[in-house]
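Your task
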Amino acid sequence: MDMPKSKSLQRIEEKMEELDPNSLRHHILESAKNFKTSWIALGRALYSVYKGKLYKEWGYSTVETYILKEIGIKKPTAMKLLHSYYFLEKEEPQYLQKEYAENANAALMPGYEAIDLLRRAKNNKTLDKNDYEKIKKNVFEIGKDPQLIKRDLTTLIRSRREIDPQVEQQHSRTITIKRYLTTLRAMKREIEITKLLPPSLLKETESLIEKLEREVS
């Protein structure tokens, strides 16, 4: 007996029926259906949409709204997907090659969560090249569980902060910025709901949120 389909999957399939099977939009929805086994294909397609602002042509104001409403993936996951794919394209393009996918052990193929942790390791100024290579080996060669990679990464960063007080100061700054972001996002929702303030203020708030998000990304 067939397993019942989730509402999210049903929406995706219904939307696919409305679109040209050869269109990029249809391809993205197809990738979303196979999300667990082909996140790279989905990430690549979504990055094309983000880079070309195609979501605006399809009636969405932001890429996050498009991904949530049409594909059913929430913003935190969507951002990890985009960041993880772009990171591989920029820093480790060899893992996007067809030959790697064909020869790699399927059980060791990393998910987007593991790649996102590797990205964070690369961007963390506390860690050196050897630290990064150690995390990279756990991701691609050992196929370590993302939760274990996260634990190792946290332990590694803490040990380095004890040596470098400037990094600890940067960490405190990041925490403060995240606190500001929480406040601004709540303010943005209030402005959208009450509509008591002019649209220009909403745009300024959105712009400030985007700038702060880049500071902590």
About this structure: The radius of gyration is 20 Å. The longest helix spans residues 165-194. The mean pLDDT is 84.
